[in-house]
Amino acid sequence: MGNDLEVIIQDGDVEPDSGQSDALNRGFAKAKGEWLFWLNADDVLLPGALGKVKEFIAAKNEEDAKGINWIAGDTVYIDEQDKVRDVRCDAKWRPWFGHHLCAWVGGPSAFFRRELWDQRGGFDPELKYVMDIDLWTRWAKAGERFAALGDYVWGFRVHDGSKTMCGRNQADYGAERARMVARHGLRHEGFWRNLNRVVSVLDGSWVKRKYASARMRGMAI
C-alpha cells in the first residue's frame, strides 16, 4: 500500500474518551484519507486484505465513473491462537428487507469513503455494543448500498474478555439492540430476521457459510 496508508492509534489512556463509539469518532475526525476503516485492538486484518480492497476499488472505478462509496468484506472468527473457529459470508444486503431489518456488516470488514462518513454521520456515542449495526442501518435506510468484496478481510478474535462475545454482556447487548431497533421503527424485525434465514438457505448462502467454516476450521491465519 506504500504511502497510501495512514494509521491512527486512538488510545483512551492517552486521549480520554466516553467509550468505543466516541473513540472511533475522534479517530476518524483526525483521518486525512479518502477511504476509512477501523480495527479493534484484539482483532486482525487478514493477509493481503488491504491490497484486495484497493484492487476492488480500482476495478469498480473502471466499471462506473461514479465508483463506490462503501465496501463490505467477510469475517473470520479466530481464537486466541489465531486459529479459525467459524466464518461469516453474509456481506449481502437484500434491498427488499431494507425497511424491516437491520443492515448487517461485520464491523471492521467495512471500508467507506470519507465523503459518506461526513454526509451520513458517524457512530452514536450513546451506543456501546451495536454502534456499527446502527450506523449501517442508518446508511442503508438513507439509500446507501455497499458493494460486496466477496473475500475475507477481518479476523474477529473470540475470547472471554470480548465485549460483544462475552456471555455476561449478552443481556446488556440485547437490551441495547432492542432500543436501537425500536428507534429505527423496525417493529417486526424478529419475523424479518427469520425470513432472511430462510432466504439464506434457499439461495445457498447458508450452505456456503457452513462449508467454508468446516473447510477452514482450525487453520492458522
| Number of E-type strands | 6
Share in β-strands: 5-15%
**Number of DSSP helices?**
7
Backbone CA Rg: 17 Å
Whole-number total of structural domains: 1
Low-confidence stretches: none
Within CATH, the superfamily carries the name Spore Coat Polysaccharide Biosynthesis Protein SpsA, Chain A
CATH third-level topology: Spore Coat Polysaccharide Biosynthesis Protein SpsA, Chain A
What's the end-to-end separation, in Å?
A: 20 Å
CATH class: Alpha Beta
Give short descriptive properties of this protein.
Spore Coat Polysaccharide Biosynthesis Protein SpsA, Chain A, globular, 6-stranded mixed β-sheet, 221 residues
Describe this entry's structure for a reader.
With 221 residues, the protein is an alpha+beta fold. The chain has one domain: Alpha-Beta Complex (Spore Coat Polysaccharide Biosynthesis Protein SpsA, Chain A). It is 38% helix and 15% strand. The chain is built from seven helices and six strands. Strands 1, 2, 3, 4, 5 and 6 form a six-stranded mixed sheet that branches. Strand 3 and strand 4 form a beta hairpin. It starts with 19 loop residues before the first helix and ends in a 5-residue tail after the last helix.
